[in-house]
Amino acid sequence: MEAMRMALTTAKMYFLISSKAKDSRAMINNIHSRAYLVDSCLLDLAAADVISLKDNRIIINEVLPHSLYFLNSFMDVVIRNKDDDIDTVIAKILQNVGVIKHTYLALGEEFTEDGNVIEKKKGIIHKVRTFVPQHKTNAEIIDNISSQMLGTRPMSINVFCLTEILVLSRQLRIYFRGRERKAIKNRLLRLEKHPEYAKVFELSKEFEIHMKKVTNLIAKETPSSYINL
After folding, report:
1. Is the overall model pTM greater than 0.90, yes or no?
2. CATH number (domain holding residue 197)
3. d(CA 189, CA 121)
């Protein structure tokens, strides 16, 4: 099944296009890179109306739908800490090796079944599972983003969220030329004021503020800013 025929969420698209050619685990080993994955997962939950923000806390609105089953462990942390402020919840997710690993493996296994990534095992004694995306899969995603952001096609909420994250993480420059990046950013500015995107844009900015603060604090406390998965 081709990637663009799948119902790709923000986190799924981010997982695919941010995975490195040799080892996709590099995406989550670094605290700053890991934060963008967590950010995309939170946006998936918000876009599905599973969560919302109120009074500096994450409010649980709905049960986790089957389409977001890869966020089971992720959502468990949110539920267990629902009375804590959002910074505390984000910090607990970012530092929870089990949750990050479960989310990573769940995404990788789903795409392996569909033939969009190849699973590899590294290490001599302790085998470590890693997933390498097919070049065609990533090309399809970038083409889809390009057609929605630069063409006349309607833009999905998930592509809107992903593009915001790519701008924030400075990954947009990897896939688009200068003139294209300018056009994409201009369209984002217009869409951010549109009623259909205003709510998720506001949430994305709130998540961004909290994520930056928490990530910087964790990075200072952890000398290497890396975790061993």
Report:
1. no
2. 1.10.3630.10
3. 42
